[in-house]
Amino acid sequence: MKFSDIIGQKAVKDRLVQSVKDGRVSHAQLFWGPPGIGKLALALAYGQFLNCTAPTPTDSCGTCPSCIKSARLTHPDLHFIYPTTTTKKIKKDPESKLFAEEWREFILTHKAYVDLNRWYDFLGVENKQGTIFARDASEIIRRLNFKAYEGKFKVMIIWMVEKLNITAANKLLKLLEEPPENTLFILIAEEPEQILTTIKSRTYQVKIPRIDKDDLTKALAAYYDCRIAEVSDISSMAHGNWLEALRLHDNAEEEKFHFHNFQQWMRLCFRKSVIELIDFCANINGIGRERQKAFLNYGLTLFRNALLSNNGLSELVRLTGDEYAFASKFAPFVHHANILEMVSLMEEGIQQIERNANAQILFMDTSLKVVKLLQVKP
Ligand SMILES: [Zn+2]
After folding, report:
1. Helical (H) or strand (E) element with 187
2. What's the predicted TM-score (pTM) here?
């Protein structure tokens, strides 16, 4: 990873580069800041820059053998320690080195923009908390006893150092205080107040700020290959967090999908277009159970909004432009005489999908009931 691959963070990059030029690389640094801002990416770019054999004044070359190995996370002088836990594969005594393959795939897939939840999801252990164990600390000590193989520096990255347990921390204290020559520890944390003071006091702290809004917007537009205006709102809502921006964008796409389908569904029900409803239900059958539930939930929200706007409470209704236009036209058909039944239809639908009902039959049945309910006069 090169510095130029990282979103924004110019001031931090400049400082890190300058420290190398001045020969003032602190041997134990703590990169801390909120999630989704590129802390690990910066650590990787820093390590690559330090070991690059042909760096430019501001970045690693990206093409020398050292850079290529660093970018693939296979450089023999690049080491990682991170929280782990027992999984289906590793049933006891988990430690970082047992998950090296998973870690590499995880980091490369996400271009080093990652957080703990995503790591746990990746390992399939959503409900467990990971730890950095004493075993991990022993492994660090073992590896640092060897000389740097190829690089100028041995780079040891400890990701989410909050998760270091006390025994592990005590094992590392001496190393952090007097590390072997040409060793760089980069500790990464989101909640510095949760780090043991003994560890914190032995590091040089580098606070990483949130990504600047303009930088985030540009990166989003490039990532989704769209205009700046299309991602500007999401960029504001994401508060400089790249991962949050991606999540918001995906949610917005999903909302559009549900809106489009719900609008079509209600139109077909209103026109009593039975043949087209059959096609519609076949399509919905193919979107998968989780999305079918989300679709009915979306319907519930729109019904609620239609009712609110009918009762002059439209200022409470939070809808996008297209949704609002549709809801206003649709609202008169949802009223005191049918709303409760509409709502319970959607709720029952969700329950039946959870009980593995045949979705195509369920949606057809629901559609016919909606057709009737839409005819009910207020
Ligand atoms: Zn290079």
Report:
1. strand 183-189
2. 0.81
Identify residues whose C-beta is under 5 A from ligand 1, the ion: 52, 60-61, 64, 67
CB 176 within 8 A of CB 4: no
- φ and ψ at 24, to 5 degrees? -120, 45
Distance 70 CA to ligand 1 centre (A): 9
Q: Give the C-alpha distances (Å, rounded to integers) separating 227 from 217, 232, 233.
A: 10, 9, 12
| Structural domain that includes position 274 | 254-375
Task: Give the C-alpha separation, 174 to 373, whole Å.
Answer: 74
With respect to residue 99, please indicate whether it lies within any of the assigned structural domains. Answer: yes
Bridge partners for 156 per DSSP: 79, 185
Rg (CA), the chain: 27
User: Using alpha carbons only, what angle is made at residue 208 by residues 205 and 211, rounded to the nearest 5 degrees?
Assistant: 175
Backbone angles phi, psi at 272, to 5 degrees: 55, 40
Question: Which residue type, as a one-letter code, is found at position 307?
Answer: L
Q: How far is the CA of 50 from the centre of ligand 1 (A)?
A: 9
Together in a domain, 202 and 304: no
In sequence order, which residues have a C-beta less than 8 Å from that of residue 310 and are 6 or more positions away? 331, 332, 334, 335
Give the Å distance between the CA of 69 and the centre of ligand 1.
Answer: 10
Tens digit of pLDDT at every position of the chain (378 positions): 999 999 999 999 999 999 999 999 999 999 999 999 999 999 999 999 999 999 999 999 999 999 999 999 999 999 999 999 999 999 999 999 999 999 999 999 999 999 999 999 999 997 788 999 999 999 999 988 876 667 789 999 999 999 999 999 999 998 998 888 889 999 999 998 999 999 999 999 999 999 999 999 999 999 999 999 989 989 999 999 999 999 999 998 898 999 999 999 999 999 999 999 999 999 999 999 999 999 999 999 888 877 777 777 655 556 667 877 887 788 888 888 898 899 999 999 999 999 999 999 999 999 999 999 999 988
Give the residue from 176, 209, 242 where a domain finishes: 209
Total Cβ atoms within 10 A of residue 25: 15
How many domains, in total, are found in the chain?
Answer: 2
